[in-house]
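>> received
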Amino acid sequence: MSNYDRPVVIVGGGVAGLTAALRIHRAGIALRLLEARSRLGGRVLSVDETGQVSSDGFDLGPSWFWPEMHPAFGRLVEDLGLASFAQHDDGDVVLQRMPNGPPQRYGGLAQAPPSMRLAGGTASIVSALSDALPEESIELGVRATGARLDSEDVELSFVDVAGAVQTCRASFVVFALPPRLLEATVAFSPPIDAASATRWRATPTWMAPHAKFFALYDRPFWREHGLSGSAQSMVGPLAEIHDATTASGKAALFGFVGISAEDRAAAGEAAIVTASVRQLTDIFGPEAAKPRATLFKDWAADPLTATGRDRIPTGHPMSDRRRWVGQDWGDRIVLAGSETSVRDSGYLAGAVDAAENAAAFVIARLQKSVQRDPLSPATNG
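>> returned
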């Protein structure tokens, strides 16, 4: 039962939004989580070979985490009972320097600390978090469009799954989405202060400029030839390639597409896929020429991730301890996207860190307001 008469509304159902929701739920505070997509996860997306969301999938979004560098995220993985495994790096790496020259092999080096992956795909953490929340608190296909501040709470406007414009009132709103996307898609009344709005627009959105390509095979044949599956290329279209074989043994290679978002849009997906398979064949041999399936995800073309500003890469978001919200709105909204993390901005760990901080802020404020109210049910048995 809630100890406050209006729920907390969380906008965004990725790792950050779900983590904040879980902490707030465990504090006994009512909540609504609104997610614009028809699925949870945000930039976390694990799919099967047909591109459908899967519980044993390939990660079109983030793949890795580093528990030694990000112990809080590692503890969350353990707390949720999720299995993990190390990124495969046993074998030689390949460097492709010239379009007409042979690829060069070099002895591989074990990563320290190792990059870790979640069994079943990164979306396994999304499933575990959402399973711990009341089913009725999660609403999909709901896109926030505006927020109006009054003396006691926030009126949030949104378009529901049927396309109707709706409003709800909230004690607090947690915006668990990239600051740049928030600034571009949600209208505030009164307006967000100019300094905050400028900062939101200037903050790069993690993953947004990038595209990933996967080639799926019957077996990881490159391992049989002493190759790790890792390659660096100055030729392209893939700039960085890795073994993407799942914990269950589904074989795949993936690469980050080293072409700008504008050039990707001009070339088209089909041309990029064809060129990527040809490149894998040049690097790993003729067995790479006939993948059983391919996958391609261009995050810059995803309107629920990227804005026009994200089509030009501006580097990794930098951690910053300044407050993200000015005085007018600072007591009613809080930002919780990975980009707002004070220590791990732009990582899965950053999403959890930002969410934990946002939830702690909301819980402390609501508990304080309840203590001040002598008529509150929480203070009257």
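>> The longest strand covers residues 143-149.
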